[in-house]
Amino acid sequence: MAPGVQLRDGVEIEFASGERIVCDGVAAGTSTTEVTTVVSHAHGDHLVDTASEIVASELTAALASVRQSECDPETITHPAVDLIPAGHIAGSRAVLLTDPETDRRYLYTGDCRLSDRLYLDGFDPVDADVLILETTYGDPTYRFPAPEKTQHRIREWLAQTMDDVVILFGYALGRAQKLQVLLESTARSRVFITDAIAELNTVIESHRNITFHSQRYTNDVTLQPGDAVVLPMQTARLGWIESLVEATDAITAGFSGWAIDDSFIYQRGVDEGFVLSDHCDYDELIELVTTVDPERVYTQHGFTETFATRLTRKYGYQTQALKSNQSTLGDF
Protein backbone atom coordinates (compact mmCIF):
# COMPACT_ATOMS: atom_id res chain seq x y z
CA MET A 1 0.00 0.00 0.00
CA ALA A 2 1.23 3.49 -0.79
CA PRO A 3 2.17 5.70 2.17
CA GLY A 4 -0.57 7.97 3.39
CA VAL A 5 -3.31 8.67 5.93
CA GLN A 6 -6.16 6.45 7.09
CA LEU A 7 -8.84 6.69 9.77
CA ARG A 8 -9.37 3.47 11.67
CA ASP A 9 -9.44 3.29 15.46
CA GLY A 10 -7.23 6.37 15.32
CA VAL A 11 -5.56 8.33 12.55
CA GLU A 12 -2.87 6.14 11.02
CA ILE A 13 0.05 7.66 9.09
CA GLU A 14 2.21 5.31 7.07
CA PHE A 15 5.71 6.33 5.99
CA ALA A 16 7.40 5.29 2.74
CA SER A 17 9.26 2.52 4.61
CA GLY A 18 5.98 0.99 5.78
CA GLU A 19 6.42 2.22 9.35
CA ARG A 20 3.13 3.23 10.91
CA ILE A 21 2.36 5.83 13.53
CA VAL A 22 -1.13 5.99 15.00
CA CYS A 23 -2.48 9.15 16.59
CA ASP A 24 -5.14 8.76 19.28
CA GLY A 25 -5.88 5.10 18.61
CA VAL A 26 -4.53 1.64 17.87
CA ALA A 27 -3.73 0.27 14.41
CA ALA A 28 -6.34 -2.23 13.26
CA GLY A 29 -5.36 -5.89 13.56
CA THR A 30 -2.13 -5.21 15.44
CA SER A 31 -0.88 -4.97 18.98
CA THR A 32 0.36 -1.61 20.18
CA THR A 33 3.94 -2.96 20.14
CA GLU A 34 3.91 -3.11 16.32
CA VAL A 35 3.24 0.59 15.84
CA THR A 36 4.11 3.84 17.55
CA THR A 37 1.16 5.26 19.46
CA VAL A 38 0.84 9.03 19.88
CA VAL A 39 -1.73 10.54 22.27
CA SER A 40 -2.54 14.19 21.65
CA HIS A 41 -4.33 14.88 24.94
CA ALA A 42 -6.14 13.25 27.85
CA HIS A 43 -9.80 13.50 26.89
CA GLY A 44 -11.42 10.07 26.96
CA ASP A 45 -12.12 9.85 23.23
CA HIS A 46 -8.41 10.28 22.48
CA LEU A 47 -6.86 8.01 25.12
CA VAL A 48 -5.57 4.51 24.32
CA ASP A 49 -6.12 2.21 27.29
CA THR A 50 -4.10 -0.70 25.87
CA ALA A 51 -0.84 1.15 25.27
CA SER A 52 1.99 0.77 27.77
CA GLU A 53 4.16 3.26 25.88
CA ILE A 54 2.98 6.46 24.23
CA VAL A 55 4.47 9.52 22.62
CA ALA A 56 2.77 12.30 24.56
CA SER A 57 3.48 15.16 26.90
CA GLU A 58 4.35 14.18 30.46
CA LEU A 59 1.19 15.93 31.65
CA THR A 60 -1.03 14.02 29.24
CA ALA A 61 0.46 10.71 30.42
CA ALA A 62 -0.08 11.70 34.06
CA LEU A 63 -3.69 12.71 33.38
CA ALA A 64 -4.24 9.47 31.47
CA SER A 65 -3.14 7.51 34.54
CA VAL A 66 -5.78 9.31 36.63
CA ARG A 67 -8.55 8.99 34.05
CA GLN A 68 -7.82 5.31 33.31
CA SER A 69 -7.02 3.64 36.62
CA GLU A 70 -5.70 0.44 35.01
CA CYS A 71 -3.43 2.26 32.60
CA ASP A 72 -0.13 3.87 33.55
CA PRO A 73 1.60 4.57 30.23
CA GLU A 74 5.27 5.39 29.94
CA THR A 75 6.15 8.34 27.72
CA ILE A 76 8.68 7.71 24.97
CA THR A 77 10.11 9.74 22.11
CA HIS A 78 10.37 9.01 18.40
CA PRO A 79 12.91 10.64 16.04
CA ALA A 80 10.24 11.37 13.44
CA VAL A 81 7.72 12.86 15.88
CA ASP A 82 7.68 16.40 17.29
CA LEU A 83 5.04 17.53 19.77
CA ILE A 84 3.74 21.11 19.59
CA PRO A 85 1.47 22.75 22.23
CA ALA A 86 -2.02 22.63 20.75
CA GLY A 87 -3.84 25.17 22.94
CA HIS A 88 -6.76 22.80 23.61
CA ILE A 89 -6.32 21.76 27.25
CA ALA A 90 -3.36 21.52 29.62
CA GLY A 91 -0.84 19.08 28.17
CA SER A 92 -2.43 18.88 24.72
CA ARG A 93 -0.10 18.55 21.75
CA ALA A 94 -0.37 18.68 17.99
CA VAL A 95 1.87 16.16 16.24
CA LEU A 96 4.37 16.90 13.46
CA LEU A 97 5.59 13.74 11.74
CA THR A 98 8.44 13.79 9.24
CA ASP A 99 8.95 10.79 6.94
CA PRO A 100 12.71 10.08 7.23
CA GLU A 101 12.91 8.77 3.64
CA THR A 102 10.98 11.50 1.83
CA ASP A 103 11.06 14.43 4.30
CA ARG A 104 7.29 14.69 3.80
CA ARG A 105 5.75 16.46 6.79
CA TYR A 106 2.39 15.47 8.28
CA LEU A 107 0.72 17.75 10.83
CA TYR A 108 -1.95 16.11 12.97
CA THR A 109 -3.67 18.80 15.03
CA GLY A 110 -5.70 16.68 17.39
CA ASP A 111 -8.11 19.04 19.14
CA CYS A 112 -6.69 22.56 19.09
CA ARG A 113 -7.38 26.28 19.53
CA LEU A 114 -5.38 29.19 18.13
CA SER A 115 -6.44 31.82 20.68
CA ASP A 116 -4.66 32.35 23.99
CA ARG A 117 -7.07 31.75 26.89
CA LEU A 118 -6.41 32.38 30.57
CA TYR A 119 -3.47 30.08 31.47
CA LEU A 120 -3.23 28.45 28.01
CA ASP A 121 -1.25 29.69 25.01
CA GLY A 122 -2.88 29.09 21.64
CA PHE A 123 -1.61 26.70 18.97
CA ASP A 124 1.07 28.14 16.68
CA PRO A 125 0.76 26.18 13.40
CA VAL A 126 3.85 25.07 11.47
CA ASP A 127 4.40 24.35 7.78
CA ALA A 128 3.47 20.87 6.58
CA ASP A 129 2.82 19.03 3.33
CA VAL A 130 -0.21 17.20 4.73
CA LEU A 131 -2.60 18.60 7.33
CA ILE A 132 -4.92 16.34 9.34
CA LEU A 133 -7.38 18.70 10.97
CA GLU A 134 -10.17 18.34 13.50
CA THR A 135 -13.25 20.19 12.24
CA THR A 136 -15.62 20.02 15.22
CA TYR A 137 -16.88 23.51 14.38
CA GLY A 138 -16.13 23.48 10.67
CA ASP A 139 -19.37 25.22 9.63
CA PRO A 140 -19.65 29.03 9.18
CA THR A 141 -22.45 29.04 11.76
CA TYR A 142 -19.83 28.56 14.45
CA ARG A 143 -18.02 31.86 14.73
CA PHE A 144 -17.16 32.56 18.36
CA PRO A 145 -16.74 35.86 20.19
CA ALA A 146 -13.15 36.70 21.15
CA PRO A 147 -12.19 34.77 24.32
CA GLU A 148 -11.68 38.03 26.25
CA LYS A 149 -15.21 39.13 25.40
CA THR A 150 -16.68 35.82 26.56
CA GLN A 151 -14.65 35.88 29.77
CA HIS A 152 -15.86 39.44 30.48
CA ARG A 153 -19.47 38.39 29.93
CA ILE A 154 -19.06 35.43 32.30
CA ARG A 155 -17.53 37.62 35.00
CA GLU A 156 -20.38 40.12 34.63
CA TRP A 157 -22.94 37.34 35.00
CA LEU A 158 -21.15 35.97 38.07
CA ALA A 159 -21.27 39.45 39.62
CA GLN A 160 -24.95 39.90 38.79
CA THR A 161 -25.81 36.59 40.47
CA MET A 162 -23.78 37.13 43.68
CA ASP A 163 -26.93 36.72 45.79
CA ASP A 164 -27.48 33.23 44.36
CA VAL A 165 -25.86 29.84 44.36
CA VAL A 166 -24.59 29.15 40.85
CA ILE A 167 -23.82 25.75 39.38
CA LEU A 168 -21.50 25.76 36.39
CA PHE A 169 -21.27 22.81 34.02
CA GLY A 170 -18.19 22.15 31.90
CA TYR A 171 -15.95 19.22 30.95
CA ALA A 172 -14.07 17.92 33.99
CA LEU A 173 -10.76 18.32 32.15
CA GLY A 174 -10.30 21.67 30.44
CA ARG A 175 -13.45 23.71 30.91
CA ALA A 176 -13.73 23.04 34.65
CA GLN A 177 -10.24 24.42 35.29
CA LYS A 178 -10.92 27.56 33.26
CA LEU A 179 -14.16 28.13 35.15
CA GLN A 180 -12.28 27.90 38.44
CA VAL A 181 -9.76 30.49 37.22
CA LEU A 182 -12.59 32.80 36.16
CA LEU A 183 -14.32 32.37 39.53
CA GLU A 184 -11.12 33.27 41.38
CA SER A 185 -11.22 36.69 39.70
CA THR A 186 -14.66 37.43 41.19
CA ALA A 187 -15.93 38.19 44.69
CA ARG A 188 -17.08 34.61 45.27
CA SER A 189 -15.08 33.19 48.17
CA ARG A 190 -16.33 29.59 48.09
CA VAL A 191 -15.98 27.43 45.00
CA PHE A 192 -16.76 23.72 45.17
CA ILE A 193 -15.80 20.92 42.81
CA THR A 194 -16.23 17.15 42.57
CA ASP A 195 -13.58 14.61 43.55
CA ALA A 196 -12.95 13.84 39.86
CA ILE A 197 -12.19 17.48 39.06
CA ALA A 198 -10.05 17.81 42.19
CA GLU A 199 -7.89 14.84 41.14
CA LEU A 200 -7.32 16.40 37.73
CA ASN A 201 -6.51 19.75 39.35
CA THR A 202 -3.81 18.08 41.46
CA VAL A 203 -2.13 16.58 38.40
CA ILE A 204 -2.21 19.86 36.48
CA GLU A 205 -0.84 21.78 39.48
CA SER A 206 2.10 19.36 39.69
CA HIS A 207 3.06 20.05 36.05
CA ARG A 208 2.07 23.68 35.53
CA ASN A 209 2.63 26.93 37.42
CA ILE A 210 -0.98 27.23 38.52
CA THR A 211 -2.91 26.65 41.73
CA PHE A 212 -6.65 26.06 42.08
CA HIS A 213 -8.24 27.15 45.36
CA SER A 214 -11.51 25.23 45.13
CA GLN A 215 -12.91 22.93 47.81
CA ARG A 216 -14.31 19.44 47.38
CA TYR A 217 -18.09 19.31 47.58
CA THR A 218 -19.45 16.76 50.06
CA ASN A 219 -22.86 15.99 51.52
CA ASP A 220 -21.84 17.90 54.63
CA VAL A 221 -21.58 21.20 52.74
CA THR A 222 -24.45 23.64 53.13
CA LEU A 223 -24.48 25.92 50.11
CA GLN A 224 -25.03 29.62 50.76
CA PRO A 225 -25.80 32.60 48.50
CA GLY A 226 -22.63 33.54 46.65
CA ASP A 227 -21.30 29.98 46.51
CA ALA A 228 -20.34 28.41 43.18
CA VAL A 229 -20.20 24.74 42.26
CA VAL A 230 -18.31 23.51 39.18
CA LEU A 231 -19.53 20.15 37.89
CA PRO A 232 -18.86 17.97 34.83
CA MET A 233 -21.26 18.74 31.97
CA GLN A 234 -22.60 15.18 31.82
CA THR A 235 -23.95 15.44 35.38
CA ALA A 236 -26.42 18.22 34.57
CA ARG A 237 -29.47 15.94 34.47
CA LEU A 238 -28.56 13.56 37.30
CA GLY A 239 -31.17 13.27 40.04
CA TRP A 240 -28.98 14.54 42.87
CA ILE A 241 -28.05 17.63 40.85
CA GLU A 242 -31.68 18.38 40.15
CA SER A 243 -32.43 17.99 43.86
CA LEU A 244 -29.52 20.29 44.73
CA VAL A 245 -30.76 22.96 42.34
CA GLU A 246 -34.25 22.74 43.79
CA ALA A 247 -33.06 22.84 47.41
CA THR A 248 -30.79 25.87 46.92
CA ASP A 249 -32.76 27.65 44.17
CA ALA A 250 -29.47 27.66 42.25
CA ILE A 251 -28.97 29.23 38.85
CA THR A 252 -27.31 26.88 36.36
CA ALA A 253 -25.08 27.62 33.38
CA GLY A 254 -23.44 25.55 30.66
CA PHE A 255 -20.23 26.40 28.83
CA SER A 256 -19.48 25.14 25.31
CA GLY A 257 -18.99 26.15 21.71
CA TRP A 258 -22.40 24.63 21.06
CA ALA A 259 -23.90 27.39 23.23
CA ILE A 260 -23.90 29.55 20.11
CA ASP A 261 -27.09 27.65 19.21
CA ASP A 262 -30.26 29.01 20.83
CA SER A 263 -31.33 25.44 21.59
CA PHE A 264 -28.30 24.78 23.81
CA ILE A 265 -29.87 25.76 27.12
CA TYR A 266 -32.93 23.60 26.45
CA GLN A 267 -30.96 20.59 25.29
CA ARG A 268 -28.61 20.77 28.29
CA GLY A 269 -31.27 21.76 30.80
CA VAL A 270 -29.52 24.92 32.08
CA ASP A 271 -30.62 28.50 32.71
CA GLU A 272 -27.77 30.22 30.87
CA GLY A 273 -25.32 29.31 28.13
CA PHE A 274 -21.90 30.79 27.36
CA VAL A 275 -19.74 30.22 24.27
CA LEU A 276 -16.60 29.01 26.03
CA SER A 277 -14.77 26.56 23.78
CA ASP A 278 -11.41 24.80 23.65
CA HIS A 279 -11.76 24.15 19.90
CA CYS A 280 -11.11 26.37 16.89
CA ASP A 281 -14.19 28.03 15.50
CA TYR A 282 -14.76 28.21 11.75
CA ASP A 283 -12.61 31.31 11.22
CA GLU A 284 -9.72 29.90 13.24
CA LEU A 285 -9.86 26.68 11.21
CA ILE A 286 -9.55 28.70 7.99
CA GLU A 287 -6.65 30.67 9.50
CA LEU A 288 -4.95 27.44 10.56
CA VAL A 289 -5.18 25.92 7.07
CA THR A 290 -3.93 29.02 5.27
CA THR A 291 -1.04 29.35 7.73
CA VAL A 292 0.10 25.74 7.25
CA ASP A 293 -0.67 25.98 3.51
CA PRO A 294 -0.41 22.22 2.86
CA GLU A 295 -0.65 20.27 -0.38
CA ARG A 296 -3.54 18.23 1.02
CA VAL A 297 -5.96 18.58 3.94
CA TYR A 298 -7.71 15.67 5.65
CA THR A 299 -10.65 16.59 7.88
CA GLN A 300 -11.99 14.58 10.81
CA HIS A 301 -14.65 15.03 13.50
CA GLY A 302 -17.63 17.31 13.21
CA PHE A 303 -18.34 19.08 9.91
CA THR A 304 -15.81 17.10 7.88
CA GLU A 305 -17.58 17.18 4.51
CA THR A 306 -18.78 20.77 4.89
CA PHE A 307 -15.36 22.13 5.73
CA ALA A 308 -13.51 20.05 3.14
CA THR A 309 -15.89 21.19 0.41
CA ARG A 310 -15.53 24.88 1.32
CA LEU A 311 -11.72 24.61 1.42
CA THR A 312 -11.70 23.18 -2.07
CA ARG A 313 -14.25 25.52 -3.63
CA LYS A 314 -13.15 28.77 -2.02
CA TYR A 315 -9.44 28.27 -1.45
CA GLY A 316 -8.46 25.61 -3.98
CA TYR A 317 -7.01 23.07 -1.54
CA GLN A 318 -7.02 19.34 -2.23
CA THR A 319 -9.15 17.96 0.57
CA GLN A 320 -10.57 14.66 1.78
CA ALA A 321 -13.02 14.05 4.61
CA LEU A 322 -11.69 11.07 6.53
CA LYS A 323 -14.00 8.08 6.87
CA SER A 324 -13.29 4.92 8.78
CA ASN A 325 -11.30 2.13 7.11
CA GLN A 326 -10.49 3.91 3.88
CA SER A 327 -7.56 2.22 2.18
CA THR A 328 -7.16 4.15 -1.08
CA LEU A 329 -7.96 7.65 -2.27
CA GLY A 330 -10.76 6.15 -4.33
CA ASP A 331 -12.52 5.24 -1.10
CA PHE A 332 -12.86 8.87 -0.04
TrEMBL record:
Transmembrane parts of this sequence: none
Keyword NAD in annotation: no
Checking SUPFAM superfamilies in the record gives: Metallo-hydrolase/oxidoreductase (SSF56281)
Keywords associated with the record: Exonuclease, Hydrolase, Nuclease
Q: Tell me, which GO biological process terms does this entry list?
A: double-strand break repair via nonhomologous end joining; interstrand cross-link repair
Q: Which GO terms describe its molecular function?
A: 5'-3' DNA exonuclease activity; damaged DNA binding
Name by which UniProt lists this protein: Putative exonuclease of the beta-lactamase fold involved in RNA processing
Organism of origin is Haloquadratum walsbyi J07HQW1
